[in-house]
Amino acid sequence: xxxxxxxxxxxxxxxxxxxxxxxxxxxxxxxxxxxxxxxxxxxxxxxxxxxxxxxxxxxxxxxxxxxxxxxxxxxxxxxxxxxxxxxxxxxxxxxxxxxxxxxxxxxxxxxxxxxxxxxxxxxxxxxxxxxxxxxxxxxxxxxxxxxxxxxxxxxxxxxxxxxxxxxxxxxxxxxxxxxxxxxxxxxxxxxxxxxxxxxxxxxxxxxxxxxxxxxxxxxxxxxxxxxxxxxxxxxxxxxxxxxxxxxxxxxxxxxxxxxxxxxxxxxxxxxxxxxxxxxxxxxxxxxxxxxxxxxxxxxxxxxxxxxxxxxxxxxxxxxxxxxxxxxxxxxxxxxxxxxxxxxxxxxxxxxxxxxxxxxxxxxxxxxxxxxxxxxxxxxxxxxxxxxxxxxxxxxxxxxxxxxxxxxxxxxxxxxxxxxxxxxxxxxxxxxxxxxxxxxxxxxxxxxxxxxxxxxxxxxxxxxxxxxxxxxxxxxxxxxxxxxxxxxxxxxxxxxxxxxxxxxxxxxxxxxxxxxxxxxxxxxxxxxxxxxxxxxxxxxxxxxxxxxxxxxxxxxxxxxxxxxxxxxxxxxxxxxxxxxxxxxxxxxxxxxxxxxxxxxxxxxxxx
Length: 606
Description:
Layout: H1 19-37, H2 48-73, H3 82-99, H4 104-109, H5 118-134, H6 142-163, H7 175-193, H8 197-219, H9 222-234, H10 237-253, H11 264-267, H12 291-325, H13 327-344, H14 351-367, H15 382-396, H16 400-417, H17 421-434, H18 439-451, H19 455-468, H20 473-488, H21 496-510, H22 515-527, H23 531-544, H24 549-561, H25 565-578, H26 582-605
Helix pairs in contact: 1-2, 1-5, 1-6, 1-14, 2-5, 2-15, 3-5, 3-12, 5-14, 7-8, 7-13, 8-9, 10-12, 12-13, 12-14, 13-14, 16-17, 16-18, 17-18, 18-19, 19-20, 20-21, 20-22, 21-22, 22-23, 22-24, 23-24, 23-25, 24-26, 25-26
């Protein structure tokens, strides 16, 4: 009886062998390399904006390829991972937080120092999806690993150039991130090699050695002395603690969905604490300097919990499944994520590094989920797919206008520095026209007109800036100054002294512990016949910051206008009790002399 031939059925992974998947891998690699390396010295924001524009531009063709892949090969190509649930929850919270944000424009586009609003989340969700479906086997990571290594070498070379003083931009290292990765390393080794004597004994000896060397370096060497000085003196621990306290207070007041994605700058002025040393700042703070506190303040407790869930699930799956199934990928990734999250506990997030967290989530979802070969291959209109991808590339060019506006703003800034007022007005106005939602560009317009002493136009521009970013007190202070100058020049068409005083008081209300706001209010009060109130305001201003010499001048002028010399003396004594200066001492001496003369006159009449 003839033997029956056995039929061998080969399972063909159509998507795994597809050109689309390879294209996704290349686009992801180019995106990551560009976000690391790109910068534009001709832009006002040389780093974050160019990186953001580039990243968002590539998100469109990436999204088109992901959708074409899902349509052609089915949803089975997307890994069924619990990480997806945490990421989905995070997306829902961010969208809701944006809808109820204190400043929806800020929440949607992000702060101009970081650009990590809702549009950033959309970009990162596309990256997450692309990494999930395109990187599924150890061999898939060779291309991005080589690109990442090359980008790192270039970045380090640039850092060396900066170190020798040939570039104005400074880079900083992060000890906490490296310490976190080193601390996680023993647990990974035990997980991969097992809890055996041959593993534990060398690992214990190595750990003791590392701890001993660290102790010697930190406590018995000149390097340790410099390190301790950096922590205790250069790190400004008190300032950081006050920022953390502000973040907690902001979370308390808007606990569910926070102030809006990347909207810490909108929350911070309401919770800025005065500096006991009398050197309080006057600029808004755009970050909580801690990813968990940042999440709580900007997206609420729900956002913080969703982010914590994503971190916890990713770490658990990489440790429990990844190190067993794909240790060559899961091991370095787990170390990198530990370092990244540890680094984020004391640092400011940025698009140049935060892509790693999202790419890490996508990689973890892929390597810890069983690969199901996709035999499904729907027939699709290749021309239609090409048109879709091509159209996405055209849409990607929409970000160029934002970069162009930044170039114009940088030109305006240079013109202001060179005292070329006409050129500054032209460039700043063009920048504000290209990207009218950014308050910073309207502020430049105001500064340019102020340089030409066109007070009304300057005030109009600062009014728009205050409307665009009502949480920045400086815009109201600039509006108050220029409306005051306009009024003093005889032009009352914009409301006169009342408008100037209202704007100055609004600046104080927006940021009650901002010394600049108090100083400007004192100037305006002094200019419009309120010298006693001006002295009272200066007493508050010098308590917040003793280093502003303009307060001394305004105090001297206001004291000379107060008709009640005794009251003026009391007010100036309050100021001198906080701040010593020659101008203030001379003013107080004059008041004491005038008081003595007045007393003598009264006695002689009596």
